[in-house]
Amino acid sequence: MEHNATDPIRVLIVEDQEDDFHYISFLLGKSLRGTYKVDWARSYDEGMEAVRRCEHDVGLFDYALMGRTGVELMREAVTQGCEMPIILLTGHDSFDIDQEALAAGAADYLCKVGLNTTQLERAIRYSMRHAELLSTIRKSQQQFELFLRNVPCAVCIYDETEILFQNEQFQTNFRPAAFLQSGGQLQRVNSGPYTDGKTHWLVNSFSMVNAQGRRLNGLAAVEITDRIRAEEMLQRTTRILNGILASLPVVVSSLDENGVILESRGRGLADIGLKEGDLVGANLLDIHPQAKSEIRSALGGGSVNFISEMVHGSRRHYLESYYHFDETRGRGALGFSVNVTRRVEAEAARSRQSQLLRAIMRNLPVVVGRLDSEGRVVEAEGDGLAKRGITPRQLLHQPFTKLFPASEEAVESALVGGSGTFGLTGWQDDEDEDWWAELFVFFDEENGAGAIFFGRDITERRRLERTLLHISDAEQQRIGADLHDGLGQQLTGIACMTAALRDRLQPTHPKEAEQAAMISGLANDAVAQSRALARGLCPVQLEASSLLSALEDLSYQVQLLHGIKCSFTTSGPAPACDHDTAVHVYRITQEAINNAIRHGQAQEIAISLEADGPQHRIVIRDDGVGFDSNQERSRPGVGLHLMNYRAGIIGGTFSITSEPGGGARAECTFSTSSPAYETATP
Q: Which 8-state DSSP code applies to residue 135?
C-alpha cells in the first residue's frame, strides 16, 4: 500500500511477549520525526491474518514465535503476495539469523537489546524507501516489456524448452522452431549476421537472469539488408594504397556526398579496436555528430579540422580529423584522423581535478597545501580556517612545525613516506567558545618528496559530541537521583513497616514474626542494592567531595552489587581536576569495570590512581578470561569507542591490553593542566 508522507506510518508488530511489544511501542512513541499507528499480533496465526488484510506500511516480526519463527511467517507472507517491508527482531545478535533473515527477503535485522528510537525509526524508513524502490522497479520491468514489443527490431527471449517472449517483428520475419530448435531442445543462438536469402539481419545474442535466478537466453535482430548491399558495392572500389596505410598510425577515409564512408583504412583502426572495413557504410555525420557542420563544410567544397569523440565497445576515443573536398571525383571528401585520446583525457583529468579542488576550497571549511622536503610550506589554498587564524598567506614560506609544534611527529613521518594526524584548538572571541581543527599530513607521492597537508574545521562536530555526552551524563544523574529518592525511599519504608510488624507479632505469633523479619531483611538488602545502583548512576561524591572519594565508593559498590573483590589504591597527590574531567575519569573506570565483570567474568578487580606531576594515570586490572587485543582493536565496540572518546575530551589517552586467559589491563592517562590539542599561533 502506498503511504502518504503526512499520514501516520502503520506498523504491524508480531510479538508473543507483551513486554517486548510495549517496549517497541514506547520507542516509536518517542519519535520526533513522525507518528506511528501500531497494531499488535500476539502469535504467528494472528500475524498471518493481519498480513492478509494489507493494512500496514511496515512489519516488525519477532524471530521466536512460540515454536515457529518470524522468518517462516515472512516467507508465508511473501507467498500470499505481501509487498509490505518486514524487519526481523531478535533478542540477541546472531550472524546465522542475520544471514537467514536477509536470504528470506527481510528489509532489515535488529537486535532488541540496546535498541533505541533512532535505530528503529531509521530501519523503518529505510525499509519503506526500499519497498517503494522495488515497486518502481516492477513498474519499470512492465514498461521495459512494452518497449520490447514496440522496438523496431526482432526480439526473442527463451530457455532450453520454450520461447518465453517474442515481439511481432520476430513472429513475422522468423520461424522460431527452425531458427532456434536443434535436437529437440532450444539452443542458444550465436551473435552475428543471419539471412533467409532475401533479408539480412544482425543478431545479438545475450544471457540474462530473471528475478527468480533462472538463466535465460535472448536475442535482438536488426535488419541490415541495405547496409549489406552497400558494403558489397563499396568493396569493389578501393582508392587507398594498402601498403602505405599499413605503416601509418592514422585512419584514412573516403566519403560520398552524403558523408557515408566508402573506404576506411589504416593502422589507426586497430588503436580503437576496429578492423579494416568496420566503418565502411557508416555515415561520418553519425559517428561524429558534434562535428556535423565541419563535415558538411568539407562535403560542400571546403577544408576543415576538428576534434570529436567516438565510442567503441566500452571505450571512448577522441580523434583529431582533417577533411577536404574530393576534387578528383567532384563530390564527397577525403581525410584522415589521428587518435588523440590520451592527450584529451589527460587535459580533462587536469581540468576535473582543478574544478574539484576549487569547489572544495570554495565550499568546505578546509585548507590544503604542500610542504617541501624540509617541511616548509610552499603551496597553500583555501580560506576555510581563516576565522580560526589560519590563512594561506600566513602559512606560505613558513616551517610547518614552527607554526604548529604539535605537528612535529606527523610531519617527520610524512616526509619519509608515511602519514600523521594532529589537532589544534583555540578560543573564538566572537563565538565565546572553543574551536577545534584536525590536520592530516602525508607523503607527496606525485613529486616523490615533501608532503601534502589537509586541515578541516571540526568545531561543530566536537561541540555536538560534547553536548550529547553531557546530555547522556545528565540523564544518568537524573535516573540515579530518581532511583535513590523514589524507589530507595519506598523500600526503606517497607523495611521499617515490616520491622514494626515483626515486633507486634513476636509475642503472639512467633512464626509470622519470623516471616516478617525475613521480609524486613530482604527489603533492607533491596535498599542497599538500589542505593548502590543509584551511586553508580549518580556519583554524589563528584559533586560533594572528590574524584578519590567517588572511586573509592565505586569499588565498594562493586563488591556490594556483584559479590567480587574490588580494591582501590592511590599514590601521589590527589588530582586537582575540574568536575567535567572527574566525571569522564569516573565513567571510564566504571565502563572498564563493567566490561571486566560482564565480558571477562572477573572475580577480582584492582583500581589504582597514580600521579606524576600534572600527569595522572588510572589503571584497572582484572583476573578475567581476557581477550585478543589485536582483534578487539580491529572491531572496537561501543564501550571501547566511548572510553577512547572520553579520554580525548579531557586531553588524555586510553589503552587496553589483554590476552586470552590472562585478564585485562585498561589504562587512562590525563593531565590537570593543559589539553592534548594546542592552540594555533601562525
A: H
Please spell the DSSP secondary structure of 216-269, one letter per residue. Answer: EEEEEEEE-HHHHHHHHHHTT---S-HHHHTTSSSEEEEE-TTSBEEEEESTHH
Q: Rounded to an integer, what distance in angstroms lies between the CA atom of residue 287 and that of residue 321?
A: 12
Count CB-CB contacts under 10 A for residue 21: 19
In a domain, 98, yes or no: yes
C-alpha cell of 492?
Answer: 526503606
Residue with cell 529518592: 485
Which stretches of 313-376 are assigned E, i.e. beta strand? 315-325, 333-339, 366-371
Mean pLDDT rounded to a whole number for the chain: 79
Shared-domain flag, residues 681 and 546: yes
Return the bridge partners of 654, or none: 668
Q: Is the pLDDT of residue 541 over 50?
A: no
Give the Cα separation of 519 and 560 in Å (integer): 20
Evaluate whether residue 147 is within a structural domain: no
Q: What is the distance between the terminal CA atoms of the chain, rounded to a whole angstrom?
A: 61
Tell me: do 620 and 651 sit in the same domain: yes
**Res 441: pLDDT:** 93
Q: Which domain holds residue 376?
A: 364-463
pTM of the model: 0.36
Helix (H) or strand (E) holding 505: helix 488-505
What amino acid is encoded at 524 in this protein? N
- The three-point CA angle 105-109-115 to 5° equals 160
C-alpha pair distances (Å), 73 with each of 24, 55, 86, 354: 19, 17, 10, 55
How far is the CA of 500 from the CAs of 493, 506, 513, 582, 596, in angstroms? 11, 10, 10, 42, 41
- The total number of structural domains that make up the chain: 6
Domain boundary among 345, 379, 401: 345
Instruction: Say if residues 155 and 167 touch (Cβ distance below 8 Å).
Output: yes
Q: Identify the pLDDT of residue 540.
A: 46
> Of the candidates 361, 349, 353, 359, which has an alpha carbon nearest to the alpha carbon of residue 454?
361
Which cell is 593 given? 569495570
How crowded is the C-beta side of 18, counted as CA atoms within 13 Å?
0
* Measured distance CA(219)–CA(223) in Å, rounded: 13
Q: Mind spelling out the 3-state secondary structure of 405-451?
A: HHHHHHHHHHHCCCEEEEEEEEEECCCCEEEEEEEEEEECCCCCCCE
The CA-CA-CA angle for residues 346, 347, 349, to 5°, reads: 65
Residues 106, 79 share a domain = yes
User: In which band, very low, low, confident or very high, does the pLDDT at 234 lie, cut at 50, 70 and 90?
Assistant: low
In sequence order, what are the beta bridge partners of 109?
Answer: 88
Pairing of strands 261-265, 303-312: unpaired
Is the Cβ–Cβ distance between 654 and 644 less than 8 Å?
Answer: yes
Q: Is the pLDDT of residue 267 over 70?
A: yes
Mean pLDDT of 90-104: 75
Separation CA 151–CA 143 (nearest Å): 12
